[in-house]
Amino acid sequence: MPDLIFPPLRSFHDFVSASARFGLPDGQDVHKWNNRVINNLHYYQSNYFVLAICVFLLVGCLQPVHMVEGLAIVAVGCWGASLVKSYWPYLQALQGEKLGLMLAGTAAATVLFIHYFLSGILFFLCAVILSVLVVILHASLRLRNIKNKLSNRIEEAGLKQTPMGVLLSSLGQEFIPIVSQHDKGFQQSITDN
């Protein structure tokens, strides 16, 4: 596997200025729209990372206490899930009264956390979701240029690997064409014979 390469920030002129070409995606051709989003995510990934952080921080400036509270609770939740995963064999060995007390204590702590910190958790999650939506919106509307297409073909050929390429591969989003319904029926008839 090739080394991970962090692509440079694309110029503001290329990313959002007046000369950058934008257009609504064709809602009828989902494959083409998906391809545009994936290619733009690859090409502008450094810009999208900076944009997502800026949106996240901007939203965080609106309610900094809720943001820090939500971040802390989500971090504690992730830590707790990691802890439970690492001690899972020991927890499975608990039986009877000890297991019931532990489950009751966990349920009570969860209810208290949700009751007192729900606004912080929701605010934090809204900031994360808004950051992702802004990135997806730009990737959907930004038309590709020649440099974008060339850069994506180099990564597709496996000559370089980027963080966005690794993330999209782990999510199952690669440069694979979508099979039409007609082709699926044809493939099904071949496998039946």
What does it look like?
The protein has 193 residues and is mostly helical. 73% of the residues lie in helices and 0% in strands. The chain has helices at residues 12-15, 30-43, 45-62, 64-86, 88-93, 97-141, 146-156, 163-170, 181-192. The protein is elongated, with a radius of gyration of 23 Å. The model is unreliable at 175-193 (pLDDT under 50).
Approximately how much beta-strand content do the residues carry? Answer: under 5%
SSE pattern, N- to C-terminal: HHHHHHHHH
Low-confidence parts:
175-193
Using only C-alpha atoms, the radius of gyration works out to 23 Å
Dominant shape:
elongated
**Average predicted local confidence, pLDDT:** 76
Distance between the termini: 39 Å
Report the helical percentage.
over 70%
- Class of secondary structure makeup: mainly alpha
- Number of H/I helices: 9
Q: Main β-sheet: number of strands, strand sense, barrel status? A: none
Oligomer: single chain
Number of DSSP E strands: 0
Question: How would you sum up this structure in a few lines?
Answer:
The chain is mostly helical and 193 residues long.
